[in-house]
Amino acid sequence: MFVYSFGLDICFKQGKVAQTACMSACQHLSTSLMQMLLDSELKQISMGAVQQFNLDVIQCELFASSEPVPGFQGDTLQLAFIDLRQLLDLFMVWDWSTYLADYGQPASKYLRVNPNTALTLLEKMKDTSKKNNIFAQFRKNDRDKQKLIETVVKQLRSLVNGMSQHS
């Protein structure tokens, strides 16, 4: 993986230059991964794809926690991935009640998840569920999940609209 070979090259260099290069690489990787998820060209995403994406982000976090460059305090490098981590945790655990109840609170578990970002990703999943499952309307589980997604989408839209009115 590129990140590991990049890390090996950097680990032989010392000091602030190596730290800056490593932090910049992690931030760039995190930003690129987030943009990939939210890209308007990506019309649909399945839960399986989100799970695989989560595994990829875990690999990035493992690299960041492996101390590829000496001198970082604690989990400083891992913080480059915090926005992605909180977004993926929200989707992996499907913890919408907590997200919506705690939104805007300083101690929120999902403090770094922007409602617009969550809405964009959820709408991509909503489209997938509808199109890939012709018989979903006949299965109670699938119907319930669709209702939940639609309810959460409405609540997220309200949050997004509330944010734009306060700006």
UniProtKB/TrEMBL annotation:
PANTHER family: EXOCYST COMPLEX COMPONENT 6 (PTHR12702:SF2), SEC15 (PTHR12702). GO terms for biological process: intracellular protein transport; vesicle tethering involved in exocytosis. InterPro entries: EXOC6/Sec15, EXOC6/Sec15_C, EXOC6PINT-1/Sec15/Tip20_C_dom2. It holds the Pfam family Sec15_C. It comes from the Eukaryota. This is Exocyst complex subunit EXOC6/Sec15 C-terminal domain-containing protein. Residues 16-124 form the Exocyst complex subunit EXOC6/Sec15 C-terminal domain. Gene3D superfamilies: Dsl1p vesicle tethering complex, Tip20p subunit, domain D.
